[in-house]
Amino acid sequence: MKIVAVESSVVSVPFDMGGPHCRFAGKLWDKLEILLVRVETDDGLVGWGEAFGHAAIPATRAALDTIVAPLVIGKNAGDISALTREVLHSTHLLGRNSSFVYAWSGIEIALWDLLGKRAGLPIYQLLGNSSRTTLESYSSLLAYGDATIAARNTRAAADAGFRYVKLHETTREALLHAQSAVAGMDVQIMLDVNCPWDVPDALDKARSMRDDGMYWLEEPVWPPEDARGLARVRECGIPIAAGENVAGLQGFRTLLEAGAIDIAQPSVTKIGGIGEVMRIAALCAAHGVRVIPHSPYFGPGFIATLHIGAALPQSPLIEVLWMDMEANPFAPYVHAVNGMLSVPQGPGLGCDPNEEIMTRYRIGSVHRITTAEAYA
Ligand SMILES: [Mg+2]
Fold it and tell me: Per-residue pLDDT tens for 257-272?
């Protein structure tokens, strides 16, 4: 079936993050925005995808509308591997870990949705046909820069049934506060610091926390592609998680061959889509490294992560941001209940968006690309 149209649109939903709203890449983050990608084929089927995301949306959408969407118009929607190669080769001079790859990721997810709908099967069954229909999640708290708020929300997440809680804080104080807030409960704490330290500083920090019992330390080293530096920090003995900011399969190969990670975190809306995450998962399995995807999403990117999670040989934890959205067009699948998520069982993603919520929260217009002419 041929691709006849690609549409991009953005929904923007107010949310409560359990603390003061923070800044994301310099921009006040007070609305949760989702960049939706809708792909239509000549047999009338529609697939949905999501491209990264958050503060990057204007750039990703420009890449999608002007370059990446025109590249796929008229192409065979079912040959995802061939189209992946073609689009990524056509755009490689524009950046291998860039808005162009994020844009392609959104289309790729939509193509899997279409593939499943055409086959009458949920994506996870196309990927491996596991019998796993529920997945455990972890609560990923937002960045408060405040150990007291982080501890309060850690306890709230634990009371809501999460057995794993991740902080986006950078201090040992925040870690210890959070751990004491759930003392006596069966709850593990992770610390995601988002690449703040050069290697000597990261070594000092890791050594100071190595006996604190954290479940993992995420992205301690700047820049994120310093695989050797990360491997040195890992030698301190704390499990290291990383991968949301590396480029594709080869980026993960670099991390794995350096012995830099215990936990690989490919991000489906950034890395190139479902196929690339599955290729990375196979490589990680060969290195004995666990995959726990990065998924701070609330749309098809999150739903795609559920299908990946169901298909992986080892059940991963699924990242769920700790926030309260006013509404979500992909509810109820984006919400954990007692820490658990359900994998949609319908064909494809198994979860088309709620049109009424889409219309209510859409900002700007829908961009519809129907011609292979770039910059049209
Ligand atoms: Mg992270």
Answer: 999 999 999 999 999 9
- All CATH 3.30.390.10 domain ranges of the chain, comma separated, are 3-120+353-369
Structure confidence by residue, pLDDT tens digits, 213-228: 999 999 999 999 999 9
C-alpha 320 – ligand 1 centre gap (Å): 12
Distance 268 CA to ligand 1 centre (A): 13
Q: What is the CATH architecture assignment of 124-342?
A: Alpha-Beta Barrel (3.20)
221 neighbors 196 (Cβ within 8 angstroms):
no
Residue 28 has a CB neighbour count (10 Å cut-off) of 10
* Alpha-carbon gap, residue 195 to 221, rounded angstroms: 5
pTM of structure: 0.97
218 CA to middle of ligand 1, Å? 6
CATH says 3-120+353-369 is which class? alpha beta
**Per-residue pLDDT tens for 273-305?**
999 999 999 999 999 999 999 999 999 999 999
Distance 178 CA to ligand 1 centre (A): 18
Distance 322 CA to ligand 1 centre (A): 14
Domain with CATH 3.20.20.120 in the chain: 124-342
d(CA 223, CA 178): 27
Q: How many angstroms does the Cα of residue 41 sit away from the middle of ligand 1?
A: 35
